[in-house]
C-alpha cells in the first residue's frame, strides 16, 4: 500500500514487518514509486538508535522546509531505539515539520513506548506486499556481483534503462545480503545499496549510481572521479 503523494503534513507511521530481515522491503513497499526529495535511513546495521541519532534526525528535519519535495526519515529495527531516545523522539513526532514523514519499521511494535505508538499509524505489512518489489527476473546475484569484472559491471549498468527496475534489482541484492551471516563486508555492502536506492529516489543519473555501487561491491577501483564521488554523503 504505497503512500499517496502529498507535500503537506504526513502522519508518522509504524510499519510492522514479519521478521527483522524484510524491513528494507517493507519500507520500500510502503513508499512505492512516490517521488521524494530524500530518504534518510537509520539503523541499517541493527546496532541500535540512541540520543545522538535522534539529534541527527532533528537537525535533518530542520532543512525539510527548504525543498518542495517530501523528506522521509526511516528508522529500521525501531524496537532497538533506547528508552531515552524514544522519549526524545516523542517531541519530533508531535512537531514533525510539513514536507516530512517519520517511518518506524519494526517486527516488535509492542516494544515501543505507548506514547510513541499512540502518535503513529500502525500498518501491518504483509509478505505479499513486500514481495512486489523483488524482481524474480534478475540474472545477477550478490555472489556473482561481488566477483564481477569492470567490463561486466559497465555492461550491466548501461543495460538498465528503467529506474524502477534498477531499484528492484538493488532491493533484491539487499534481500540476498540479509540472508547471509552479518559481517563487516556484508554490512558495508548493504549500506552501499541503501545509498544507491536513496540516490535513485533523488533522480541522480541511473548508470552513474549503479556503476558506483557495483564497483565498490566488487572491490574495484572506480577510476572516474565523478563515479567515485557520487556516493559521498
CATH architecture of the largest domain: 3-Layer(aba) Sandwich
Biggest sheet, spatial arrangement of strands: 2-3-4-1-5
Count of structural domains = 2
What proportion strand? 5-15%
Proportion in helices:
40-55%
State the CATH class of the largest domain.
Alpha Beta
Tertiary shape: globular
Structural class from helices and strands?
alpha/beta
CATH topology value of the largest domain: Rossmann fold
Distance between the termini: 30 Å
Number of helices: 11
User: How would a crystallographer describe the biggest sheet?
Assistant: 5 strands, parallel
Secondary structure elements and pairings:
Layout lengths: L12 E4 L6 H9 L6 E5 L8 H11 L9 E5 L7 H12 L5 E7 L7 H4 L3 E4 L2 H5 L10 H4 L4 H9 L4 H15 L6 H18 L4 H12 L7 H5 L4
Parallel strand pairs: 1-4, 1-5, 2-3, 3-4
Q: Would you kindly provide a written description of the structure presented here, covering whatever features stand out?
A:
The chain folds into two domains: 13-131, 3-Layer(aba) Sandwich (Rossmann fold); 142-229, no CATH class. Helix 7 (150-158) packs antiparallel against helix 10 (206-217), helix 8 runs antiparallel to helix 9 and helix 9 packs antiparallel against helix 10 (206-217). The two termini are 30 Å apart. The protein has eleven helices and five strands, in the order E-H-E-H-E-H-E-H-E-H-H-H-H-H-H-H. Helix 3 links the parallel strand 3 and strand 4 (100-106). The longest helix is centred in the last third of the chain and has 18 residues, at 184-201. It is globular, with a radius of gyration of 18 Å. 34% of the residues are buried. Mean pLDDT is 80; it is low at 4-8 and 132-138. The chain has helices at 23-31, 51-61, 83-94, 114-117, 127-131, 142-145, 150-158, 163-177, 184-201, 206-217, 225-229, and strands at residues 13-16, 38-42, 71-75, 100-106, 121-124. The chain has a five-stranded parallel beta sheet with strand order 2-3-4-1-5, with helices on both faces. The chain is α/β, with parallel strands linked by helices.
Amino acid at each position: 500500500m504505497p503512500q499517496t503523494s502529498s507535500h503537506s503534513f504526513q502522519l508518522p507511521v509504524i510499519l510492522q514487518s514479519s521478521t527483522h530481515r524484510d524491513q528494507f522491503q517493507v519500507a520500500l513497499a510502503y513508499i512505492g514509486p512516490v517521488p521524494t526529495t530524500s530518504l534518510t535511513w537509520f539503523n541499517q546495521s541493527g546496532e541500535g538508535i540512541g540520543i545522538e541519532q535522534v539529534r541527527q534526525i532533528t537537525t535533518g528535519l530542520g532543512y525539510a522546509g527548504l525543498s518542495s519535495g517530501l523528506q522521509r526519515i526511516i528508522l529500521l529495527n525501531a524496537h532497538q531505539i533506547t528508552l531515552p531516545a524514544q522519549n526524545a523522539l516523542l517531541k519530533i513526532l508531535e512537531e514533525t515539520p510539513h514536507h516530512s514523514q517519520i517511518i518506524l519499521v519494526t517486527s516488535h511494535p509492542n516494544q515501543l513506548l505507548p506514547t510513541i505508538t499512540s502518535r503513529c499509524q500502525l500498518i501491518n505489512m504483509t509478505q505479499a506486499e513486500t514481495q512486489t518489489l523483488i524482481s524474480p527476473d534478475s540474472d545477477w546475484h550478490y555472489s556473482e556481483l561481488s566477483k564481477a569484472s569492470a567490463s561486466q559491471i559497465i555492461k550491466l549498468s548501461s543495460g538498465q534503462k528503467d529506474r524502477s527496475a534498477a531499484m528492484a534489482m538493488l532491493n533484491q541484492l539487499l534481500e540476498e545480503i540479509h540472508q547471509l551471516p552479518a559481517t563487516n563486508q556484508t554490512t558495508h555492502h548493504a549500506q552501499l545499496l541503501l545509498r544507491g536506492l536513496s540516490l535513485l529516489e533523488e533522480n541522480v543519473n541511473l548508470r552513474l549510481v549503479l556503476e558506483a555501487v557495483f564497483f565498490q561491491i566488487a572491490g574495484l577501483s572506480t577510476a572516474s572521479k565523478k563515479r567515485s564521488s557520487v556516493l559521498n554523503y
